[in-house]
Amino acid sequence: MLIIGIAGGTGSGKTTVVNKIISLFRNDEVVLIPQDSYYKDSSHLPLEERLELNFDHPDSIDFKLLVQHLKDLKAGKAIEQPTYSYLTCTRNKETIHVEPCHVVIVEGILILGDAELRKQLNIKIFVDADADDRLGRVISRDILERGRTVDKVLERYHKTVKPMHLQFIEPTKRYADIIIPQGGHNQVAIDVVCDTIQRALAAR
């Protein structure tokens, strides 16, 4: 099993990179494990407090469960991946059944910041992008997918997203084996990553 970690700031283009990598394989050869599925459950908090949660801080992620699930997959055991709702800021009752396969991609802004998680990753990738480009994508996504207003998105960006990026995400770039500049638009870098993955699989 080859476990690939793909990190980078919010709106950096990680999803584009992930999709281009996944397109190389059959459905039964690759599985995606999103960091966002492992946000800690906050159902014990009032809705007003949940809506103000800092999703860009490492303490918001259940890294212990994520690491255990990767170890289970490596051991040939299926897992029940949690799911999370951004609308209610709680963990859903429904889970996703995941079987072990050849390639596991772990994707998320904070995944390179946890030492135990890094030990599980065979290839570590950081998707880099200019702050202005990331902000534009964050605005579009949060309005369309999370029902937020432009003012609310900008308030959250300056209050949490930007400072958390500088404190917890940008520094993890040093742990990456490969850095992809210009986000998902850098086809040359993505091709290099895909070739690296193919060679790593062929060597196993």
TL;DR?
With 204 residues, the protein is of the alpha/beta class.
Helix-strand sequence: EHEHHEEEHEHHEH
Describe the global form: globular
Structural class: alpha/beta
- Order of strands across the main sheet: 2-5-1-6-7
What is the total tally of β strands?
A: 7
Give the CATH architecture. Answer: 3-Layer(aba) Sandwich
Describe this structure in words.
This protein has helices at 14-22, 47-50, 63-74, 115-120, 131-146, 150-169, 187-202, and strands spanning 2-8, 30-34, 79-85, 90-98, 103-107, 123-127, 178-180. The strands form two sheets. Strands 2-5-1-6-7 form a five-stranded parallel sheet, with helices on one face. A two-stranded antiparallel sheet has the order 3-4. It has a single domain, classed as 3-Layer(aba) Sandwich (Rossmann fold), CATH 3.40.50.300. The protein has 204 residues and is an alpha/beta fold. Helix content is 41%, strand content 20%.
